[in-house]
Design brief:
The chain is α/β, with parallel strands linked by helices and 245 residues long. The chain contains 7 helices and 8 strands, in the order βαβαββαββαβαααβ. The radius of gyration is 21 Å and the shape is globular. The protein starts with 7 loop residues before the first strand and ends in a 10-residue tail after the last strand.
């Protein structure tokens, strides 16, 4: 194998997976592959996700000239209601319909990762049980939250033997430059109708501040949380705990 070039090939077009590799300084080249993703009759969701990850890694490995082969990383994430594999939405309306089915119900997110290299192959699947409250007009965000929770648990499991802890913070509603005038009136500074609805569903009765996030972050990076890994800490003033009654 040549010494120059990327450390690994990523068999995925997902910009988020590529960004995660950049964040941990893994040089890589993105080479997505197309495979048949049709579930087999009676196939369980976890097995389906694992099979697709393995098949993507194998497909790319076999496409590479021998002299250019480097470790190949592939992944697949599958959402399921019980044993029903939901698959990828075909359009926006399908995505909204799917999220409507998932909202307020427990479902499972299966994330599989496969690595193939000259010395062999390894593949693992992590399953998280997820339930999220419906948030209107942000379908993609709601789905992404489930993926972050799943990946946090998976990464924590596999990095724990290296004494690396992996946790995440799930912030509630904080005023930022992006959303300030969606949640507060630009002229009066008071809450808009949407901002007032959020405050009404936040038991602590206010938006979050940077100091609120800093406190959770300081705890997570300190020795006080030395035995804490694989968790998502809500910093939302009780928004996610409030049932509305």
């Amino acid at each position: 194998m040549a010494s120059d070039g990327p450390a690994i090939y990523l068999a995925s077009a997902s910009p988020r997976r590529s960004e995660l590799l950049r964040q941990i300084d893994v040089t890589h080249a993105v080479l997505p592959v197309d495979i048949d993703e049709t579930p087999r009759p009676g196939e369980k969701p976890a097995h389906y996700a694992l099979r697709l990850a393995e098949e993507k890694a194998r497909a790319l490995w076999e496409q590479l000239p021998v002299a250019q082969r480097r470790p190949v990383l592939a992944a697949d994430t599958t959402v399921a209601l019980g044993d029903e594999i939901l698959g990828k939405p075909v359009d926006r309306d399908d995505a909204v319909r799917m999220l409507g089915r998932l909202s307020g119900r427990e479902h499972e997110v299966h994330t599989a990762v496969a690595v193939l290299h000259e010395g062999g192959a390894d593949a693992r699947v992590s399953t998280s049980t997820v339930a999220f409250r419906p948030l209107t007009r942000i379908a993609a965000y709601s789905a992404a939250k489930a993926g972050v929770s799943n990946f946090t648990r998976w990464l924590a499991t596999h990095l724990a033997p290296l004494h690396i802890r992996v946790n995440a913070i799930a912030p509630g509603f904080f005023l930022t430059g992006q959303n300030r005038f969606l949640l507060t009136d630009e002229k009066t500074g008071g809450p808009t109708a949407r901002g007032a609805a959020i405050i009404a569903h936040t038991p602590m009765g206010r938006f979050g501040t940077g100091e609120d996030l800093a406190g959770a972050l300081i705890w997570l990076v300190s020795d006080a949380s030395a035995f804490v890994t694989g968790v998502v800490i809500p910093v939302d003033g009780g928004f996610s705990a409030y049932s509305g009654v």
